[in-house]
Amino acid sequence: MRLAFSTLGCSGLPLPEVVRLAQETGWPGVEVRAAADEPIHIGLSYAERAAARAELAGVTPLCVASYVKVAAEGDDDACVADALAHADLAKDLGIPAVRVFPGAEAPRTGPLSPGAEAPGDDADQRAVARLRTIADRLPDGIQIWLETHDSHPRGVDVARILGQVGDDRVRAIWDVLHPWRVGEPLTVSLAALHPYLAHVQVKDVLSAAERTPLPLGRGTVPLRDALELLRRTAYQGWLSLEWESKWHPQAGPLREALIASRAWLAS
């Protein structure tokens, strides 16, 4: 598996320094966080996008990590427009995908089965309708990646949506932490997501309640088991460290986490 990291762990770092960090630590892939406080955001001019694309030439940019919430209450047209603005940004930067969240107001609960339907679930139906519309309007070569997160933390939750969307351009990110923290077995997560799986994010923490980032292998997330499952299914994608120091300032520097985590993976 190829190694990547999210710029969430080095928020605001200029792109040339992100590239240098990737090259020096042996993590050549990058998830590029898109936000107003980052070098990358949807307000960039065409010239600024061209410059940013050139600056990223030394790494493999994997996705534009947006904060679009496809299952949240609100205006459908605004949500679709926001997702498409990020898709246009990805296209201009030469990045193949946009990360989106579910983002509904309350966690979705239901049967722990990949095929489970959720009739009348407004959050699910909002996400399905919006993702279908977004997919129909995506620029050529761009995908949307829906992450196991917030209101839909389990693999079965995301798979339930993607199965109804039914479009190969709309795929899944397995953030290993979130299904685990709500009790979904790894085997269930991967079985549900496997038909849609585009990308895998890993992180380690002390517990489901104490989620300050730790270098891989130093917490309680069953990462060895997750990696073994991925090997068994011949996963060919990237393994991305999401070092959430943006939200946990007490976490150590990303550089140290990358070095320590790479050493653990090599072991």
Automatic annotation (TrEMBL):
Organism: Hamadaea flava
Record's protein name: Sugar phosphate isomerase/epimerase family protein
UniProt keyword annotation of Signal present: no
InterPro entries (UniProt xref): IolE/XylAMocC-like (IPR050312), Xyl_isomerase-like_sf (IPR036237), Xyl_isomerase-like_TIM-brl (IPR013022)
Lineage: Bacteria, Bacillati, Actinomycetota, Actinomycetes, Micromonosporales
Keyword presence, Oxidoreductase: no
UniProt keyword terms in alphabetical order: Isomerase
Domain of life: Bacteria
A GO MF label: isomerase activity
